[in-house]
Specification:
Length: about 200
Amino acid sequence: MLMAENLGFRYAGVPVLHGVNLRVGAASMVAVTGANGCGKSTLLHLLAGVEAPASGSVRRSVGSRLALLPQRTGDIDALPLTVLECVQIGRFRPRRLLRRPDRVAVTEIMERLDIAHLARRRLRELSGGQRQRTLIAQALVQDADIYVLDEPTAALDTDSRQRVHALLTERVAGGAAMVVASHDAEEAALAGETLVL
């Protein structure tokens, strides 16, 4: 589903990643671990196509859909979105832009992540954990083939982490390919393989 070969990247001429190889098949999860500043977020951005590699290549299965949950999303607070609107964005597709989003899927993911009661609240009014669960809901509500998630549970309490872990496991069991960058040993243990940077 997703493959990186001899991947390299530089920031202002300084090497950040070099010779990274990764394969993620359908119905599998790869955890990306390593110290802060080792390039985990950069790797995920390369896999998602947000950044272009300085060397090597990234390939995805033809026609596959990818959902990205980036680590830093502070700019989203400037948008006057409610929790419901933020999650609904995940259901829009370019060819169906004028159609209503699938409310059943949106409602279900919000209930599973315990944010349904926050539906009318603005993002800027939320706690860090509530905001993170909203962004996770937006990513997971997408009907994606590949999920690329950067530190999804870093700001969450134990109950919320367990809810997210259950959803990640279900997506993989349903056939999705998943790459998760994490410092959480319990989260990394969900994966069949681990890439240590």
